[in-house]
Amino acid sequence: MSSIWLQLANIMLFVVLYCLAALLSRLILKGRILSDLGKNSIFMIFSIIWIVTIFYLYRNSGQGSYTSVFSYLLLCVCLSSLIFISFSMDNEMRIVAGLDGKHITDRDYQAAKTLLSQWSMFFSRFIMLLILGALSLLIEYNPGEMSTIRILDRYGLVLLPAILLVPGSLAALKQPLNKVYEQKLKKYSFLKGKGFTNTSLEDRLRLVLVEKYSKRIGILILKSLLKPLFKHRIIGRENVDAESLPAVFVCNHSEIYGPVASVLNMPYYFKPWILNEMVDINKISGHIQQGTFDRQKWIPRPIRSRMGRFAGPVVAWMMQSMEPIPVYRDNGRQVLKAIHLSVEALEADDNILIFPENPLVTDGYLREGVGEFFSGFVNIAREYYKKTSRAITFYAIFANKNERTLSFSKGITYDPSKPFPQEKKRITRSLHEMMTEMSKGNRNVK
Amino acid sequence: MPGLSGINPKNNGSRSKIAPILLDRLANFIGLFFSSFLSGTLVNNFFYGGALFVGGQLLLLLSGILGKKGAGIPKRERYRYIIYAPVIVLCLVVLLLQFPVEAGDFGFLLLFLTMQFTIFYLFSGPPVALFQIRRHERILPYYILGLLALLHLAWGVPLRIKLYVITYMAIIFVLELFQRLLSGGSQVNAADFEFKSLSGMMGMKGNSLRLYRVMVTSTHITLDISMLFWCVFCFIIP
Predict the structure, then answer these.
(1) ipTM for the whole predicted complex goes beyond 0.90
(2) CB-based contact (8 Å) between A22 and chain B?
(3) Nearest-Cα residue of chain B relative to residue A132
């Protein structure tokens, strides 16, 4: 047994580490890199660090090195960070509680939170009582059982907390309150404080944060896996005025390359316009068979002819996961619906991503360069202005396959004082010109 | 980008909430640490003191929730605790009756633990503070028990144990003092909450809120258990 003073020194070290960790975690959480992630993501990161560190301690227990002290410090940082994060999420959760339609005061919320904390404290101590009680009796009646207890200790230190953290980590993974919705909540709260109402934003928040909503975890994992393979350098980000978002982004198609590169590398949250045939599970197989696989002559015909049927459901799932705005080419009423949904999305603070190239003119999307544009999407600007009295800005994006870049042009803002047909032409032509310029490598497109 | 400004306690005004809780948890861990160590020194069993300490904390929590102090807590919430109460009492009874009392200074260990509960009760840690109604006549037995333990400490134990206990008391005193200073000494009573709104709040099934509750509960339980493990088992890690 160690001397009493050594144990006291241990405690003092523990207290110092704890205080140091609290300070460090505050500094870390204020950091710029973490600011770009949502609180929920940070929660997951610290949970993972915590599990890894405790696993490291398990593997290296008893070696008494500086790394052990560092590991304890890391554990303490994770502990205080997770507590800081869970407390800071309180602000958002209070607003979410208000969205549920019940009148809940801050004190009610605080009481519920305290009950929650009390329950977790109670449950953890209950488990500890059972474990410690059993161990103390085991030692008392079988003094030679220390080796068993050491094994229990080492496994207990790792396994039990790790198992107990799993539900929390899974909940964090499923938690719909990501960075985007944090900002939406902040805006909603700000507007509400000023006495304004934004029904679209409120409806969206209620739909995602209050009502039953399943976060598309599969697509997030898929995007994370694909992103390193399609890593693109962003050019001209300074051209986008982040303060004036939401906006409409218009991107080249370049067969399938433009959509894939932009979806994986866009630095802003968006809702894409996707052709209805790509979203509808009953239509997609035939559509991609005809539009994509039948054109791949290098694939043997027996395989090629069946690819649409197999790939269809997967592609439809991916498309639906992006929560797109479905677009119909041949149905005027449905086109208006797409415009209406886009305006609602813009009101709810979402950006819109459109691929306006017309494949009918060039018999399919061009592999290089920029094809002709449809111009109907400009109607979004008019309808948005009618509803909000705000002029929306359009930005052209070009995904360059050869240089692996995603370039952003300067914005073109809708001018409601001019006749709409004229504006429609101006905006479509300017966006096309800028995109063509970017395709030629001119990065300073104005 | 606004980012995590909310996490900065200065911005959201949550410093007053976080710091006392962190300090209180630290005080609990230190209490467990000292109980385990003293148990190892006095009765040659590290786990025994830890088990009694944890059991005592559970009793304090239960008394706060199931007693009159917890009258503001919704019934459904209270029933959850009632299921566990017999198991806790049974565990403590088994521990107290089955332990060989002739082993070491068993009496002092019990007194030390009693003194700790006195301290925790008097300083009103969060487990009992929320729904607590302070009355001097209720605190009196705790004062007497604490005094007994102090008297025993003054005359009945070796010098190194005295130093040890005094150090512990000093640390706990400083921590609890800081905790009270940071929380502004404010206590929230059951009467401040309306039963209906609190009940409605607990029953809310908001998607994000429900997941948040799982996140918070799971994290608190996990962190508590790992820290408690560390506090107790650090004595036997070679």
Answers:
(1) no
(2) yes
(3) B51
